[in-house]
Request: fold
Amino acid sequence: MKTFSEVSDFAPRKARVSYETIRLIMYYTKSYKRSWKEIASLAHVSDETAINVFDKYMNPSREKLSQILSMDECYNKGRFHHAYSCILFNFSTSKLLDVIDGREKNTLIHYFNKINREERANVQYVVMDMWEPYLDVASLFFPHALVAIDSFHVIQNIIRAVNDVRKKVMSRYKGGTVEYYLLKKWHYLIYQSPDPGEEKAKIKGYKNKWLNRYEIKQLILSLDEELKYATYYYSLYQYHNEHSSKEEFTIKIETFINDENIIKIKEFVPVVEMLSNWKPYILNSFIKVNGRRLSNGPIENFNARFKELLNTSPGLYTHRRFRNRLMYTYNNIDSYTLASEPLIKPKRGKRGPYKKSSNPKK
Reply:
């Protein structure tokens, strides 16, 4: 007996879900805060059906490389094959260009080799952190582009050095002492500029004296000369980082590199080496394009969504699915079509031996 499928306006051919169910799944998937279980419940389907529909209709192509290309990474928390994902961003539009599984040099070379030379030649600036494979890849594939190191990562390294000095000083005091209390409880004031005239409050850990935040900071700095100078060095760098032009900082950076007092502090040896080794790329970060200084600020804001989606969607057990949903949610893609190629699910490990109990419970 010959059989046939009836043409229907309510569902795709040979599909088990209707157009409306597909629309609901894709609509709910757009929120990066929703897990697959929640999406499936809202669309009245199983988790597997929701995932399969998304895989079938959402496989966005990478975006074209921008004139200002931002590169950074996000930690995968052990969910995928590589420890980190490399994030490509359009600095000018804050648009996500692609998410690459891995940040290793060979992985990135394989990725950029697939992009034609004309498109790569369009890139004029590459903004990154101080991960050397990024610099190697940028030099190889974007030889005429200027490389800029995001100033956030430079400041972060200086803060880490100051904090190491603070910990060293704190280790000299026993817990419960006033000095230990100040260094432990109020350490964040080292990186701030409190107003001397602000209101005072009673500090229980400091003999119930009335002090404001400015006075507490001065007490902390009075405990050690190295800590005091390290804090001064950080504050001075932070000021010039925010207020200097590239030409001004080209002169000023030499004073930070050749500072005789800071070189004597062993925790700051890596900082001086960083400023010296990455100097031309740090200086490029002071370049402004259309009134905006080169930075990876847009990517840093994206990191929160990356982590949110990673935590709320345990069903994303392949990097490709995770990448597709990030592209879909962050770029607010409005259309979806059948994927050009099926998603290859990872092979699951073989089930262990199963042995029936010879003495079942009655």
